[in-house]
Amino acid sequence: xKKDVNKINTAYREKAQATNTLSGIAxxxxxxxxxxxxxxxxxxxxxxxxxxxxRGIYPDMFRGRYWTRREVxxxxxxxxxxxxxxxxxxxxxxxxxxxVDMPTRFGVDVQHPLAEGEVxxxxxxxxxxxxxxxxxxxIPISDVSFSLISSSCIAPIVLSQYxxxxxxxxxxxxxxxxxxxxxxxxTRFCGMGEATPPDLALKISADVIEFCxxxxxxxxxxxxxxxDLRETGISxxxxxxxxxxxxxxxxxEVLERGLDIDNFAPRxxxxxxxxxxxxxxxxxxxxxxxxxxxxxxxxxxxKNPKSLKFRFGIHTAGCSLVxxxxxxxxVRVAFEALSAVLAGVQSLHCCSYDEPIALPHESTQRIALxxxxxxxxxxxxxxxxxxxxxxxxxETLTNRIEEExxxxxxxxxxxxxxxxxxxKKWIDREIEKEAVKYQEAIENNERIVVGINEFIEPPxxxxxxxxxxxxxxxxxxxxxxxxxxxxxxxxKRVQESIQNLRKEALKGKKHNxxxxxxxxxxxxxxxxxxxxxxxxxxxxxYDPFEMEKSPF
Amino acid sequence: xEPGRKHRILIGSIGLDGHELGALIVSRALQDAGMEVVxxxxxxxxxxxxxxxxxxxxxxxxxxxxxxxxxxxLSDLLEVLEERRAKNISVIAGGIIPQEDFLVLEKLxxxxxxxxxxxxxEIVSFIKKELPEKPEV
Lengths: 552, 137
What we know:
The structure holds two protein chains of two kinds. In chain A, α8 (about 200-215) packs across α10 (about 235-255). Chain A is about 45% helix and about 5% strand. In chain A, strands 1-9-8-7-6 form a five-stranded parallel beta sheet. In chain A, strands 2-3-4-5 form a four-stranded parallel beta sheet. Chain A is globular, with a radius of gyration of 24 Å. Chain A is α/β, with parallel strands linked by helices. Chain B has one domain: Cobalamin-binding domain (Rossmann fold). A five-stranded parallel beta sheet of chain B has the order 2-1-3-4-5, sandwiched between helices. In chain B, α3 (about 70-85) links the parallel β3 and β4 (about 90-95). At the A-B interface, α5 and α17 of A face α1 of B.
């Protein structure tokens, strides 16, 4: 191909073109004191640890405790994942973060027609109590902050597996730390429509929040999942608006059960994205803190200062990464991780550079962890709270994002709230609109993405990354284990626990099912058996895909 | 292609993976380019895809694969097409499919693979140029 040496002259002369933020906010060439003259420090910004917490939820931020460094993990059999978790501990993580596989998430049997090739593919299978025991072997779970990424309707089942595993080890569950993601509504936007009927989803999430509030005061019973919402292609302002709308739906559901807002709000936590527009993401999270503090105080009349704090974890944006020239993703993730730290995050997962290609290979996941460690120990970025406060740009952008997000939230309120907006498919339409807009911007070269529409390398010269490979062997081992479990467990006990679960489920929406789920898990009922039974009791098919029937 | 006859294409995804964005965007682009799109969506079995493809009389099946199961899923799909004597329906694939698997898929019978990052205009022009009409069985 003829090389065009004159392009150096274009490269020399070109200027910044795509000057709106990713969510469409216009950015000026310069910001000055004029732009922030109406801001009152004490009212609108305040010190970190002070309402409205714009600068951070703790006075000392990372000088008190670093964000927890975690790397999402889950593949093969529970034993495989356990091995990797132990390796991560060696490499210096501060907490663990495990994601379940798709058959588990959907609550289908490991031998369901759609489960073939999916067991242990995108996460770890947690089919029974035995799997949780294998997953946590050798890990000091009485002390470790354990995050379970299972947001679908099976969240209480996975939580129950964890609870029993702790209790069997003599651990007092009122002292354990960790999170069950439990944001069921968000999974409707992760392709889990049939498996997440909104009314049942809301009930299940509320059950988990209620149970944990009463029995596990150090446990986060929900991580409002803004991250996966963002991954559908929406903007930063939509991420906040849709996420907060869902959070409000959960809060209202739990309040209807008679709990006091200050009982459970302190343990509400969020899971957000850190996308590639560096300053927008920092401003977004500052805006989120201020918005949440005001929502809790003004809308829900919360009094406990802990109820007003927007605690959040971050997962750097998988959708911002590019499969071509994958090593470039190390750079993208580094910027995103830095924005998370500058935004005062509590817990951080960095994507591995092979994220757009496969599950993280152990070598690439290590680089992701090292990214966090370099930020923590070498850059000085963690040494002071909210270092960008007072920047004319950042403060203006924080205000603008709050304004835009509140406008969207008002629209959702007018529709009747998150549940109504979801049922009307309004959220689905907004997602599609925004996603298509972004794609068009790339295809029209309005937005440049290195390696996609510019600075492209021919495929033969692409980086050959070491790739995580799916293991059919692991799938077979797990299926054999599940079959053996089903043969060897006490059938009578399983039957009784399922009957009991049915009885409890038929007591209605507000009746908490966690105790009966725990009993079913203790009897070695499997995830699909438990959720299938619950689904039937609420008028849904046992199998979300209507291919399998209840064996009971 | 008979004058006036539009391409009919079915878009779907096999297995449990929940990444739908790519499939939605491609469907939109194909519609905007004047094609008739039957959007089947996520969580299909190969049999369900073929059944719908036959019922809807499509010319092309487009499979989105984002979870790495592309070789198995597409090989099963092509087998079912053969069994149902519907091999005249062209199959294309897109998503998270590494370079090294393109040849394998093309040998199985996939007409073209469009990895993540491909411009939708490229997919449209490939279909218009290379997949003119359903050949007689």
